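Hi! If you just cloned this repository, the fastest way to understand the data is to look at a raw example. We've pasted two of them here, unedited. The first protein comes first, obviously.
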Amino acid sequence: MKDQPGVLGGADDRKPESAGRSGSLEIDEGAEPQTKTSGSARHQERTMRTQRWIHAIVGSLVFAAGGAPAVASDSFSVDDLRCEDLVNPVGIDAAKPRLSWRMEAEHHGAAQTAYRVLCATSPELLQEGAADLWDSGRIETDRSRHIGYGGKKLPRGVRCHWTVRTWNEKGDASDWCRPGSWTTFDMTSSGDWKAEWITQSHKGSATPWLRRSFQLEDAPEKAFIYVNALGYFQLFINGERVGSDEFAPHVGQYDKRTFCITYDVAKYLRQGKNTLGFWLGSAWNRRGAGVKTTPSVRAQLEMVDAGGKATTVITDRKWRAKPSSMSHTGGWKWNDFGGEVHDGRLDEPTWANPDHDDSAWSPAAPGNVSTSAISAEMLQRSRVIETILPVKVERVGAATSAPSWLVDMGKAMTGTFEITFPKAPKGHEVSMEFGDSIGKGGRLNSFRQASIYICRGSGTERFRNRFNYASCRYIRITNAPEGEITPDDIKGFLISTDLPRAGTFRCSDPTLNGIQEMTEHTLRCLMLGGYQVDCHSRERQGYGGDAHSSLDTTLCLLRSDAFYRKWTRDWVDQQEPDGGLTYTSPASSHGGGPFWCGFLTAATLKHYHHYGDLSMVERNYPAIKKWLELAQSKTVDDLQQKFCGGWYLGDWASPQGIDDKKNAEIFIQPYMCHALEQAATLADVLGKNGDAATFRRWARARGEATHQKFYDPQGGKYGSGDQVTYILPLAAGIVPEALKDGVFAGFENTLREKNKGHLSTGLSGTYMMVQYLQGIGRDDLIHLFASKTTYPSWGYMIENGATATWEHWNGKASRIHNCYNNIASWFIQGLAGIRPDPAEPGFKNAVIRPAILDDLSQVEASHDSVYGTIRSHWKREGNTITMNVRIPANSTATIHVPATDTGSVAVNGRPVDAAPHVELVQVQDGRVLLQVESGSYEIVSR
């Protein structure tokens, strides 16, 4: 249904950019009930589903079980054109953007040896000798990533069309690929704008309508509108909603940078009278992102007709303004993000139409907005990625009272709702409360998320969120009109930054499969607005600690190259002059400690490993260095003292104590050694050898001081001897070589005996432990705690009805949270073994090192790298391990095969030394290392 202004109906149900890309087997396992039910019955049901999945994939694998893959032809093509890692972006602020593509080929050894790029002002000119913007000529290289545009300067309002052809390893040329395009945004300072900031001219309205009508002699051939807003906006032209994005613009540090969104709007305009309309809403303009002002907008519509006549329409005081039918509730602050009041009596469905009478509207007022840098978002928008229907709607409360209803959406979600009510008298108020769980006595855990609908008394009574959203699973509707409310009357729209899916995973353990599904869904619920939050219900803050702990999982499961480029820039923008970093972005007064601030360092390094994007390292490194220099200035006897606000948490959200204060010091000191080593690695990448040496010298001194102060030689442990106090010193490299075996043995004994195989760690400790154990090949210990279904564990959450991960292991507080999502990276990188090679970042060379565990019979996973989809599948039958691996064209891989000698290994039915496109590297630590070119491989180890 088309979204009508003022009516608040319908939604854009387009699939996200990632839809249909992975090609993996998808199974709808249904939703678990929120109330606790029989764990054994649920486990048995999941086991049966997993068995059905195993039978299905055996027959559908790309690789034929028991034989070599079919020989593919040598045909190849070019696909997946991206400009600044975005598909056909409109309005980017890179004057010379970077272009990327993929080589698509199935045959072994497929590789690019040269490319040629054509750029032109129309698709018809994309021919050799005709391209009027740029012809790169034939460039001899295997590079297909971030090729800088070298053509004529592209003014805004002119679309650049581009195409690529490549040459393969045999010297054959591909066809020219299907063209891509981009347009430029170049109004990056206020002096570049003709438009003025405008806002409502009346007090008390946080969601005004603004409109302006104008005449056109002819319909434009080209038309782009540039929208710079504080608060949220929706754009209408001639009564029709423009674009499918929700809650635009993305969140940033608005006192340092605001965002401009560009729309191609020629199709909306016509000869004669036209009307531009903005529906504005309050959001981060209220507080928390560096500004405090009424919702404001400036926009510039630039048009050119077929005769070349240019016309510009801008926001100014000629615009008209009126309060809309929406207003907000809540203070837009911690535990009070509220909701919306939709007054159906004030709906004006035609408010944005050209023939609407606005003579009684007031003139718009000038916006009170200080100047700052203006950037394009350079990131996928927030969009509806799934429409969810409730699984249960039941009437609750006394039959004699006004009707109340409890709605169960079947799973957690963050987004908006459309609820249709029975007919009611004019002015009848309906209340809606949104919560993520139901506690004792039926109390809804809502964090004061609530909205109101005031009935119009005629026609369809329908509530629809416009500028606020809820993070919830349940809705309690009170004082509803008399009559039935059914599941068909309610729609939930899951909204997230529309990042393509990048990872898939399945294995023979149904508990791990359930954790994977829960984790991926949780990430989707936490990424509305171009940043990642701890929870949208209570805080909506982009906490560095939570983001740090889920960093590897996000990189594994979602295509997040543009995402982290945008969000880490927000962190750099808000850095204090002395080098201090806040604990959240957007900035706030919340605390955390070095693990929170250290997100910038970790994200920059891990992003480089996954995407090979040196430009982000170059941009972020000065801020990282400045932060570490500040930290070093706050040391005494080589031990870190408090800095950056001085609010320190240890291993937040651990089972034994939410903030784990007793272990805070033993967490912070080793972590700073770890952060310094990460920074030294970044300095190595940039060739800053002096900085790298300095960081490592500081880390060594800190490590020695930490060991001297906190190590207990009698107990062979650090600090309290909890899991985290063993793991952090080991992971940070501060344990002397002679003591490592003993310290690790203490950890393993604590895990197995004291904690009965369960975790005792929280947000940061669990992350560091998973990363460390995976790195040293002790995946058996990760599986020990990851596969548990008793408290505390991810399986315990699922057994108790969770569809998203919780804030605390015991289920207290938020139940859609970013504390424990780190485990899913191990499914891809550990069990399936798909990892980036730091020596050849961006998966130019992949590392395939699967963890073959006795408790699993098979694992299948994929990761959609920038070169194409990498697949890793292994299964065990008796003493035989069969691995099926696919490496995309123009990349290579190092495969670690579980075997003690090459004689027990066959590749595509041949001995290792006779297998084409395969080179033996070495035999080491029970693994045969093979270097392979692109293609599909079946590797059998007996």
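Ok, and the second one:
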Amino acid sequence: MNKKKKILTAIGLMAALGLIYYLFDKFFGKTDDWQYVYSPTREFLAKMPFYVYIILAVFIVIVIVGWLVIPIILIVKGKKIEEKMSPKRWVGIFYLTAPILLAGCLFLMNYIGLNQLINNFINIIFLGFSSQEKTYSDLDISEYLNFALICLFLILFIWSLIKIFKNKVFLALISALAYLIIGGFLAYVYMKEKEPSVSNYHYSGGGGYSGGGYSDGLSVASSGSGLKSSSWLPEMDFSRSSVSNEEMGFSVGGAKDVNNFRENIKENKLPLPTDITYEGLFYDYYFDTGKKEDCQKLFCPSYSYAVSNDPLNNYEEYYLSVGLNSNLKEENFQRKKLNLVIVLDISGSMSSPFSQYYYDRFGNKNELEPANEEDSKKSKIQIANEAVVDLLGHLNEDDRFGMVLFDDGAYLAKPLNKVGKTDMEAIKNHILEIDPRGGTNMEAGFKQGTKSFEEFLEVDQDEYENRIIFLTDAMPNIGAINEDSLLGMTQENAENKLYTTFIGIGIDFNTELIEEITKVRGANYYSVHSAEQFKTRMDDEFELMVTPLVFNLELKLKADGYQIDKVYGSPEADEATGQIMKVNTLFPSRTVEGETRGGLVLLKLKKQSENASLKLIASYEDRSGNQDSDQKSINFPAEKENYYENSGIRKGILLARYANLIKKWIIDQRALESQNQEVKMCYPNAGADPLSYLEKGIPIPQEIPCEQLLNKWERQSISLKIDPEYKSIFMNFKTYFQKETQAIGDENLKQEIEILDQLIKTEQKAQTSLYPPLKNADQRITKKPFGIFVTPQNSPIEKERFSGYHTGVDFEILSGEEDQTVKVFSICEGKIIHKDRVNGYGGVIVQSCTFDQEKISVLYGHLDLKQIPVQKNSQINKGQPIAVLGQGYSTETDGERKHLHLGLIKGGKIDFKGYVSQESMLDGWLDYERVQKGE
């Protein structure tokens, strides 16, 4: 066999082996079915102006001529020289085929996976005989293969240049230039497409970045009556080092923590009322459920009673607790198979760290101290990616997994397929490469996630559980930015037994957004503010998160002497009537030493007569729709002083009163801040005198449906403030809380005492910054800052009619706002002292404020007087909408362009001068920009 045949035989053999490997992997191996590929190149091209396309088109034509036309000419004209290929023809063939070969090789190496195949083959050879435990990622030569490929084509290019100059084929230099352009473009595209993530984490198989950990699990008893162990019950697997055979209990759906409340207080920020929910607070603690007998069914409610005096006015109150018990056991309970789709927010706000306040619709971005060094170095998206990777370790081969990403739009990153048929190591590495960008269209993401289940909605509920885990920092700015759309989709999915878990990421997560949605059947939500919390939620508590077991729990109270006044510990509390309590969903929950985490719902009763007998009927259904009920009769004790049947109900009453007082303080404090009108519309008892609670007792916050001035999907940063009268109330309540903590014996309650201490010690600080008068205010100071000297000759404004040193700051309109309504917001808290038309300004209002312990007057100029909602002598809160910019070149602006002139006059006087003749005269005004910088 001659040399040529040997080479051809070797090539054929290699091709055959490659085909066999491909077919085997296709039909018997695992598939990398990741579909999402972010292309910066495509995005760049999509955003280019039209004229750039024209230039690019001409450039491409020149390149194509150099690549195709000239090589063809050289091939045709090239004649054999002494029976050998002429240099012209050789150069022509090279430049015609080289770009195609280069692109083809890059495609084969990186998109078909030839480089990974070679990499794995070399790893097997070099690591196969090693005694150490290693994986294919331990020796990664794929990038070296790409480098070697580029070097090969560079060598061939240099060789071609030598041929050109040696044989004087100078026409081919145009082709050489085209070769460089095409090759450079391909290399650029490749490098951008393969650009490494900012994350330095790389999945290497196995336990992931957390190094293992345990997973919560459950068990079910095999005896008893009613809804007992059967095929519909899910199964969970515990992998902890020691597994208890203790019976478990339940916790309600909705909020599963109050982390946002705690983190905002920690960072000296005023929380939202929805940051602290009763069920979220209860889930932070373990409760004695008052169970007096063994539970023989899936769900066994137990009841405890208490007569407890209000700690502020000492009035007698009556309570009943519902203990959430089960016959589930920890030791042998395994969840059902899971169809899981993760919907991940990859918008631009996910690039900020956990430790950073990012929201504020007016463009404010407040930096906070990082919780720890690790979190300060990582963005929300990095930690989310790593947590998702760890979560995948809980999936079994029979589970299905899919993933959706969303920013301005939604992208199916991975279709819903069985884990056992998926190359999960490859999927994990894809996830770790995800980077944030763009806006936030939550509706699009949720729709795409729902669409992934189209062929699995009719799955056997006795075998599979369907769930979406939706991860976001909840700052949408595109699509349907109200909860109605998302709420409707969540409810529709729940009717199809497709349930949702929301995980809020970062301190800026807006609990108002999710609080209403997670009242839906099968829904729950968590909030996380650090890598450690994220790992706990997505890794350690995964099994509990995805396993709703009891639905439509309804407790009917039949009693002449009592009715339900308030329900604590259930997101459906507002659905309670005088005789009915509702809970949409119960999730399995851990029991430790006889106490269940979050295993309590508390009812505050209103006594109407001396009849102390209560008949309680509890009805519910399991995940398959089977109905069951339970009824009991209890009698309230004759004791008139503080009486608690057990520590569980005592702890529940303590936490309910604590949450009532905290929520009412948040509502009242926000009524004094920038959301004054919004708060009073939503909470009719906002702004009450705190000292009245000493007579009336701890208040129960009241909420009604309302229209809000601020979109509830946006959240403002407001500094922590405490009314002095509230400090007095908190001090009284702290004494009661400490006494109860000692009586109950739960050391964890001390974290609430620490919060009370922080609130009591909070100082009322003088204002040291002003509220931006317009959204994105810092971007608008582009023409006339404070103190600029202008004349009609040197002014940055055409047709200038003023001269002198500018006494204020001009905020320009942005592109597209010429005919739009542009709102103006109050930069401080104070009274309107002037509202009229003034020459040179048009519409003007002047506000009197105290700033940094000094009186100032704030002049807002060039306003539409007809659209100023505030009146003279009215008190205005910081951040409140107070005006609208006047139409440019009209009487509303006195013929000036559309913009805002903001003047800060020292001493509280009114001065309409927009310019002064001498620079020293500027001492009567403040520079807004320097004030905001703290100078």
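That's it. A detail worth noticing about the second one: The mean pLDDT is 78.
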